[in-house]
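Annual report, structural modelling task.

Input specification for the zinc ion complex:
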Amino acid sequence: MIDTALPLVDLHRHLEGSIRLETVLELSEKHELPIPAGGLEGLQEAVWMSEPTSDILKIMPKFDLLRQVYVDYEVCKQVARECIQDAIDEGLDYVELRFSPFFMAEMHQLDPMGVTEAVCDAWQQIDKEFPLRSRLVGILSRTYGPEICLQELIPVMAFAGKGLVGLDLAGDEARWPAGLFKEHFERARNAGLRLTAHAGEFAGADSVRETIEILKPDRIGHAVHAADDPAVMALIADRGITIESCPTSNYFTCSVPSYEAHPLPVFLKNGLKVTLNADDPTLFSGLSVWQEYELAAEMMGVSQEESKKMQLDGLEAAFISAEQKADIQKRKQIDF
Ligand SMILES: [Zn+2]
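The model returned the following structure:
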């Protein structure tokens, strides 16, 4: 259970998977985009994951329905604003929202630089009203290959420090291993960006090891299969890496066979730093971080003490300065 006296953060939330379905409906009608019959309910049926599947051919059409609405930069701005607002309304003290400029730009041939600018503009507006509640992370979609990802890195680096604080690597880790993106991560590190990468979600413990050794990230997304190799867990501990765990996402994409089989308790028993996150709330019927903490307690036997530690480790692993973390702690105490 969440300790409401402690800060609550979400460090692993995709903008592309956080869009309001009401907005998808409204924009699809306005721009005459193809959507399933049945209004909002029809859309929910098409987008929400009702049962676990590892079949990317079943998952991709859901994302295509969601990303078809990015017809111009105004829409990118609107969606980014709403996603951050929703995270704040959920009661999060701080959220890091990640997005892939190419993935958002692709369907309507927008300029990834323009997409990034729009998202960062939206962030700036929100940050004026709700200071230090959110930051942005740029994603390299590895499935486009290392060449396109070098291009995708350009807008991410251009907005480094203007709301954008980190770089992530997402997509098919089995076909596009971490080693292909060494240069990208080195450049981002030199530009002052903090680093995270998806690993051990759809590939084994070796993928986590390779990611750590080559990309040297501060955090790892999912890391599910790190639990298969004690040496990889030791490496995570040794490097002080925090795992961004997303149990519901792992369950629905078949990275784990059940909630009970999720390695979260193993990570915690091994003393690893873990944080709980929503990943793609829109796909999981509007999942909140609150629900993830409840599930961790009820289905995975996570204790109150472990839960508290995850909340604190979450803030500690945020891509902001120590001073800013202290400010969030202070704000929390005043609000509480
Ligand atoms: Zn993710």
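The pocket of zinc ion is lined by residues 12, 14, 170, 198, 221, 279 (CB under 6 Å).
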